Amino acid sequence: MRKTILVKGPALSRSGYGEQARFALRALRTREDVLDIYIVNIPWGQTGLIVEESEERAWIDQTINKTQVYVQNQGTFDLSLQITIPNEFEKIAPYNVGYTAGIETTKVAPQWIEKSNLMIDKIITISEHSKKVFENTKYDVGNRETGEEVKGWGLQVPVEVVNYAVREEEPQEVDIKFTTTKNFLAVSQWGPRKNLENTIVWFAQEFKDDADVGLVVKTSTACDSLRDRMFTESRIQGLLANVPDRKCKIYFVHGELSPGQLTWLYQHPTMKALINIAHGEGYGLPLFEAAYNGLPLLTLAWSGQLDFMCRPNKKGKSFPRIIKVDYEIQPIQKTAVWDGVLQADSMWAYAKEASYKQGLRAAIEKDKHYKQEALGLQKYILENFTQEKIYAQFVDSLGVTLDVESSVGTLKTSLLAIENPKERATAAIEALQSRTLQAEKLELLKDLFKGESCYVLSCGPTLTEHDSTKLTALLGDTLTVSIKQAYDLFAEVTDFHIYNCANYKDYDYSKKRPVVMEASTTPFKQGECDIKFFIRERNFDNSVSAKKNFGDWTLDNQTLLRPYGPGIMYEAVFYLLQHLGVSEATTIGWDNKLLPEGADQQHFYDKKGSEYNKAEFIHSNEVAANEVAVGTLSHEENITLGVIDDWYEWLKTEGCELKIVSRLNPASKKITRVEL
């Protein structure tokens, strides 16, 4: 069986620890065959959240929601991975791993050692510097039980190092109008450790009389707010006031840049070097990114960055391939002391002003030499810090035995051996419930009914115009998909049941348990289901019917999200048919037409004169209760009708012939009408 792992960390934070959390998740996702991943997201100071839409962000959101449901149902975990500073380590699972950037100084706090020894079975950190400081920090302490002094008390759990992996990105232009041809780049959050004050002032002093030299400062104080921008810009201007009549240019970039935008800056033809004279780095991610993009590094040969900026020569001896800045090791500033994190008696590096300024000049005067060195370092990193290698190393570093359960392929082979499609659908339920990962569930269903015929029961008024006994007999031999409340009428013969948040009710699966699929705007499961899809945006202009990008939203391409249709047929049903591989699908009760009686009379259970009592079916009718939704129904009808021919043709190219049983559906006559 797969191991359940809880990842607790700032998975959505725009911060170094946020990127560390996402790196860990990427590594774990490469082994979802043996790891069932859960996420508890935690805030990280005042940093903002990542907002870009991506498969990764959607997966994180879905996994966070999955975790909430799992915990509410008293689910347990085999191990935890806690991505934070050691003060916050907890004993969450039988086996616990702490994943930390470690420390940029020469000493870790006693709280770090105590928490690690008590709560954690293993520590993973991101650099050899951090590991050595963890292992070398010792204290003389008093034994709480005996009162005796214990000399040389220190870390008792193992520490392993896993560096970051290369993530190559396509450049995306940044809105900077360069008026200079010799530029430098500094990327960091403002704070005592980063030493941005000296980075800027010393630069301005050195190039005071050179109008063709510029420094891009990408920074913020704590967040990306307008207030923070104004405050940070004011600090920079205050520093520059000490260098009057300067001619060099300072380009201020505030807030978050995408990986592609940073890549554009790293690769810009006018860029001479990335500057980093911070007092210390756990790893130095911007330095790493700049290095694998071929940009020279102007920095100190100290702390975490040594792990990647040293390339061996022909004799096998490694040394830093950088523009070196000399430094002194001295106690940290009083303003940097942070109780329980940065010790007052710890030390870090202080760049020497003269050496820094000499390095700036050398970057310009010897640019061809340093560019060649940078390209050599780039080649070394691209060969040795691959995702395949580093992700595998990270998973191995967890230090647990991972047992692989039966593969999806084996399960699927056994299902395909069942000749009767309805028996095959029943057997599929147990197979689906044996998998936690939705991508694996969908792989099980892929082409599971290839070449089979299928009936789709919808909730239009015409569904109940047929003899229920005869219809039940017909469906008893054929694969059947029921939409929402249609299941209540034909529960005993339904093989797949699909619902959403409109007209939702609790469904009773006691007669026959079908495969249940939910696709709705609620991020949490509304009811019992095997497969849960989230619809993030209800916007007509961005709907799949408006864009007609049907192929982008197959269940192969999107394992967690559904598009806005509009409507459940376009959001989920047609895609399920395509995924199952059915060759013919006949809809019954899909009327696709607004009736003149009004918005609350569009279904078999609420049409005028119906024998069915609406109250018996509906617990929550979001559409009828929502004035905006009701007001747009006619617009929705026009959209769905206008694109039905396109859907028909797309399904046909996918090997599925669509047919309709309905006297009301106004769809094109190219779609075959069937009489029962």
Describe what you observe in this structure:
- By secondary structure, the protein is α/β, with parallel strands linked by helices.
- The protein has 3 domains: 3-161, Rossmann fold; 182-385, Rossmann fold (3-Layer(aba) Sandwich); 452-673, no CATH class.
- Helices cover 34% and strands 18% of the residues.
- The strands form 6 sheets. It has an 8-stranded parallel β-sheet with strand order 23-22-21-20-19-24-25-26.
- α8 (285-292) links the parallel β12 and β13 (297-299).
Q: Strand order within the widest sheet?
A: 23-22-21-20-19-24-25-26
Give the averaged pLDDT, no decimals: 89
Question: By helix and strand content, what is the structural category?
Answer: alpha/beta
From the alpha carbons, calculate the radius of gyration and give it in angstroms: 31 Å
What is the rounded distance between the termini? 47 Å
Helix percentage range: 25-40%
Indicate the low-confidence ranges by residue numbers: none
How many beta-strand segments? 26
Instruction: Work out the count of structural domains.
Output: 3
* Shape descriptor: elongated
Count helical runs.
23
Largest sheet: 8 strands, parallel
DSSP strand (E) fraction? 15-25%
